[in-house]
Write a structure and sequence with these properties.
The chain is α/β, with parallel strands linked by helices and about 190 residues long. Helices cover about 35% and strands about 25% of the residues.
Length: about 190
């Protein structure tokens, strides 16, 4: 596999306690291997608790608190899943605003599992085609989105996947999408 060069790409990973471990750690590893600068952003400082479905996993260090950052500092967003994580973040005005600003700037978003809840609460799903963990398909449809059951879906500046089993396809399409952004950004300079 040829890895896209994402040197100088600044990626914000929005997460809090209850994120699905593999949905954060594996995409972050792929991004860093491609040269991206990745920061874990959360609503609190210190460590956040991962889960492997229902069981506690590792902890991950938070790089910056959402209150201290601006969306304009980043080129792309990764939203890992985990029901607790996504349900907590979706009601945060800072998260909603951050995602709205990233979308208004047409920056790429990589979203997996339950994380589309955050897009729903930010009022971004209307008219978009995406996938997610199957239990939230009604939420996506009720928000005006077109839910499909595929391992990975690319719709404009979004790439979405369903669950940890889809991570290889998710990572591949995330890297491709983010690389397109890098190419477009360098072409416009």
């Amino acid at each position: 596999m040829i890895v896209a060069k994402l040197t100088n790409l600044r990626v914000a990973v929005l997460a809090t306690d209850g994120f699905e471990e593999a949905e954060l750690t594996e995409p972050v590893k792929a991004l860093k291997e491609a040269g991206a600068q990745v920061e874990i952003l959360s609503t609190k400082s210190g460590q956040i608790q991962a889960f492997k479905h229902h069981d506690k996993g590792t902890t991950v260090s938070v790089d910056r608190v959402l209150d201290e950052v601006q969306a304009s500092e980043y080129d792309a967003v990764l939203l890992p899943g985990g029901a607790l994580n996504a349900d907590t973040l979706r009601i945060e005005p800072k998260v909603q605003s951050f995602l709205q600003q990233m979308q208004q700037a047409d920056k790429p978003l990589a979203v997996i599992c339950h994380a589309p809840w955050e897009l729903i609460s930010a009022n971004l799903v209307q008219g978009r085609t995406l996938t997610s963990y199957y239990t939230i398909q009604d939420d996506i449809r009720n928000a005006g989105g077109n839910w499909v059951d595929r391992e990975v879906v690319v719709d404009g500046n979004w790439v979405t996947s369903r669950q940890p089993d889809d991570i290889p396809a998710f990572n591949r399409e995330m890297l491709n999408l983010f690389a397109q952004f890098v190419s477009a950004a360098s072409a416009s300079h």
